[in-house]
Amino acid sequence: MRTELTGAEIEAYLRALGERQDQTSWSGFKVVSGAANPGRLATDLEPARSYTVIMPAKEWDTRFLRMVENARKSSRGNPLTARPFAATPAPTVSFTVAMRNYVEQLTAAKQSLKAEADRLSTATGARPTAPADWAATAGQAGR
């Protein structure tokens, strides 16, 4: 599922999971637990910034929305209680399919894979970005 969450909402969700000792995983940001305050999680996300978040439908339905409901029942001021949340289905994309499509695009444009790998490994200060249509083409298996 794809949704928009603020940094404060993401952090509140992770804290709620931590309180229940639920396991989760993430990528794209760091989470630290303070030694002086064990169990207190903090992220490197900007609290007011909106982030696009992708999570499995099962997590959205059975964990995230449940945590929101629990927060509404028990605590005021929790970022999870400030607004209603909605999500839309995200395209099914695997790393392998996305990489295959990327390589096919390079090959079709007669670009060298080695030259592209060299360019990506020497890029500094900027993250390589996928082509604008990667989401549309990544889900096309067996072209």
Question: What do these coordinates show?
Answer:
The protein has about 140 residues and is of the alpha+beta class. It has five helices and four strands. It has two domains: about 80 residues, no CATH class; about 45 residues, no CATH class. The protein has a two-stranded antiparallel sheet with strand order 1-4. A two-stranded antiparallel ribbon has the order 2-3. A hairpin with a 7-residue loop joins strand 2 and strand 3. The longest helix has 18 residues.
In short:
This protein is of the alpha+beta class and 143 residues long. The chain has helices spanning 7-20, 57-74, 95-108, 113-122, 134-138, and strands spanning 2-6, 31-33, 41-43, 50-54.
End-to-end separation in angstroms reads: 25 Å
- What is the rounded Rg? 19 Å
Q: Overall 3D geometry? A: elongated
Q: Into how many domains do the coordinates divide?
A: 2
Strand residues, percent: 5-15%
Order of strands across the biggest sheet? 1-4
- Assembly state of the chains shown: single chain
Q: Please, what is the average pLDDT?
A: 80
Q: What string, H for helix and E for strand, traces the elements in order?
A: EHEEEHHHH
Number of strands: 4
Biggest β-sheet, characterized?
A: 2 strands, antiparallel
Q: Give the low-confidence spans.
A: 137-143
Structural class: alpha+beta
The total of helices stands at 5
The percent of residues in helical segments reads 40-55%
